Amino acid sequence: MSKVHKVVSGDTLGAISIRYLGSFQKWHNIVTANPQLVGRKTAIDGSPLIFPGDVLIIPVNESDGKGVVSVVEVADGEQDVAIVIGGKKFVGFTGYELNLSFDSLDTFSFSAPYDSELKELKEAIEPFSYKSCEIYYKGSLVFNGKLLTPEPKLEDSTAEITLQGYPLCGVLNDCNIPPSKYPAQYKGLNIKQIAEELTSSYNIRVEMKGDTGADFEKVACEPSESILQFLTNLLKQRDLLFTNNEKGQLVIFRPKEKKAEVSFVEGEPPLLSVVPKFNAQNFYSHITGFTKTDSKNESLSYTFKNNYLINKGVQRYKSIMIDDAKTQNDLEKAVNSQAGRMFADCVSYELNCEGHVLIDNQLCKKGLCVCVKAPKAMIRRETNFIARNIKIIRTAENKTTQFSLILPGSYSGKMPEVFPWE
Fold first, then answer.
1. Is the predicted pLDDT of residue 153 greater than 50, yes or no?
2. For residue 341, which phi and psi values (nearest 5 degrees)?
3. Cα-atom radius of gyration of the chain, to the nearest Å?
4. pTM of the model
């Protein structure tokens, strides 16, 4: 039995494979059924490029329309996490960490005793092959990604292997623009258009949620800058954040205020610990942004005032250059965004809980709003935080969830009326 799919803008073989065959890795089956794809240029995952209007035969042999992969147990651990590599699902890991990030990219790290004679594992983890993979938690796809070089460890005749990696768009954090793309100058484009230009060489799709903000008059990416480093600097100027979605693609979005979905109170389970992470050296009373002076325009300036320090008589000044602010309003938004990042970097809390904190039997979503009251950790009143990072951890001893929490206004520059410790 087979089906027919007409390619539309944004389609990839991996996404089509997930839709019809239930597995990213099954794109090989689609290529076999469509010989016209052979010889085409390939994407970063090795699949042939497809274009809107292509008509593909989808070989669906299973009655439920989903692909079936063989299961390989690497150890006798629980089977709550799995990694699919080359059509084989590896389970039984004795330790793992799923790192779900907001304003960053997800990562994974799975470990187990290493049986070097396990044929399927040997074939799957060849160093520097950057194989495509799928990461699952309790049967739900976390993200499509790339397997980085595995880390075997031999100690006292005991061997352990650690598999680690990141989403497909993780390559943007490692790599630069190909030389053929230089000079990488962008004029009159918005952030989505610039991101699409930058990521096209790696066949990474960009998903934009919300408005793009003002166009950039003229920006340039230096050869030494990683793609994500350059994009991050532009996003800060437009008060935007980034992460990845389940497909492993880059997502750009504007943060929104949310209601608390989960609460923790000092001394009550499942809360284990709360540790403040304060950074005094990068906390400023005034942040002043300037635009460059040229033959046509005088320099503009705008100062964000941190009244918390000013009211205490503390003077700490920081100046920054904003290259692409056309108006005073653009400059104010860019400086306020930088001020918000200051709060995120200087006022955060690490919260640890027993077990894996789930909502509706699903992993907590990135950007979750969390309410906490823990006076001994200098959270003297019920305070809402944003989970910038969530780690789902399992060791040989226990399961825990770790939250990295920041103040809700940290991505808007909006000062809290009262700090948690007041």
1. yes
2. -65, -35
3. 24
4. 0.81
